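Section 5.1 Outputs to date
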Amino acid sequence: MNSFVNKPILTSQTIGERLRKAREGWGLSLNEVANKISVKYSYIESIEVGQYQDLPGDVYTLEYIKKYARFLHMDSIKAVESYLSERSVFFHEKRKPNIYLENRNFKKVLQSFFKVNLKIAINGIILAGVIGVFFYATTFIHGIFSAPVLEIMSPVKYQVINDSNITFQGRASGAEQVLINNEEIAISEFGDFQESFYLPKGINLLFVKAKNKYGRETTQYFTIVN
C-alpha cells in the first residue's frame, strides 16, 4: 500500500447550496419559505442538502426548484439546469447486461451439442470432459459480465465532517482500477484502497467507481458536508 497524501478534489457549489445561501441572505427560515411557496419543508431541505433520492418525481421537483429560485429572485432556468446536471451524476447508472439471459443462451447451445454427441459417445469420459468444458465456459463468461464488488468502509453515504479532510477506505473485489471523482487511486493486489482528499467548504458530491479489465464497473455516490 502506498503512503497517502491529501490532494485537492474538484467539486462545485450545488444548486441546493446556492439556494440555501440566498435564503439565508434574505434572512428566511426553511419554514417561512415552505409556507410562502407551498412546498413541503422536507422537500426544500432535501434540495438544499442534495438528497435527491428523497424528492418526488422530476415533474414535481423541477417545479419546486423553479418556484424556490423565483421566490429568491434567482434565475429559475439556470437553477433547473444545474439541478438536472447534478441529478444525472447523482443517479447515474449504466445499463448492465442480463447475465441470466447470456448464460441461458450459452447453455442452450451446449445442450444442443450434448444431444448430438451423446448418441455417438463411447464412454462416460467424453461426457465428463464436455461437462467440464461447460462449467469452465460458464465461469469464464460470468467473470466477463460481472461488475466488481465495491465495499466502502468509510465514509458513509451522507456525512458531515468538521475539517477539510476526508478518507475513503474500502475494497473493490475483482477491480483493476478505482477512481474517486474520475481521479485514479492506488489499490492493492486484493483490491484494498485508502485515499485521503481535501474538500472545500460546503456540500460535496463525490463518487467512487471500480472497473474491471473487461470494462464492467460499479459506482457508489456520497454527499459530504464540510
